[in-house]
Design goal:
Blueprint (H helix, E strand, L loop, with lengths): L26 H21 L6 H12 L4 E2 H8 L3 H13 L3 E5 L7 E5 L1 H21 L5 H20 L13
Antiparallel strand pairs: 1-3, 2-3
């Protein structure tokens, strides 16, 4: 068969027909996993030119929503991750001057976390990039449907917190 007559291969990134496959009972799981991977890849690509990564800014976003002086343990719990997995990311954030660790006054073994001014500036930049991507990714979804989508996702997250995943030590995800 010559190059001219060879049939075009389908785009491997095109959505597969999961509903018509032997895996039809996991159509939501498949789509959420696929969307998470695609969304993260797009966000990583948009963050790269300004020297940011999702792994680095995920804890920063949570810290922006938590009170100043949040403990590493509380941040790990909010992120649904192990404290040990978070330490390496916090080391990098501290080295970059974005986060400051201070010893806890009541527990010498614990550290409290504070976002620096540079960290706040970078968080604003992260927010602008992520918000722009969200608008792009939500194109074609009517506003009233996006509010419903957020509510459904919140319900799924509540369900996930009530029923830990099998095999996960704490039911959480890793960073």
């Amino acid at each position: 068969m010559s190059e001219r007559t060879r049939p075009q291969a389908p785009d491997p990134r095109a959505l597969l027909a999961i509903d018509e496959s032997p895996f039809a009972g996991m159509s939501v799981t498949f789509r959420i996993m696929r969307l998470g991977a695609v969304w993260r890849t797009r966000l990583e690509r948009d963050l790269k030119p300004v020297g940011m990564t999702v792994a680095g800014f995920r804890p920063m976003v949570y810290l922006m929503m938590m009170p100043d002086g949040t403990s590493q343990r509380d941040l790990a719990a909010a992120l649904d991750t192990d404290t040990s997995a978070l330490v390496r990311v916090l080391d990098l954030l501290e080295e970059a001057g974005l986060v400051e660790r201070r010893p806890d006054a009541d527990d010498r073994r614990a550290n409290n976390l504070f976002i620096t001014e540079e960290g706040r500036r970078k968080c604003r930049q992260f927010h602008e990039i992520a918000a722009r991507l969200e608008v792009e990714m939500m194109a074609g979804v009517p506003g009233e449907n996006s509010a419903d989508l957020v509510a459904w996702l919140e319900q799924i997250l509540r369900n996930a917190r009530q029923s830990p995943s099998v095999g996960a030590p704490d039911g959480g995800e890793t960073t």
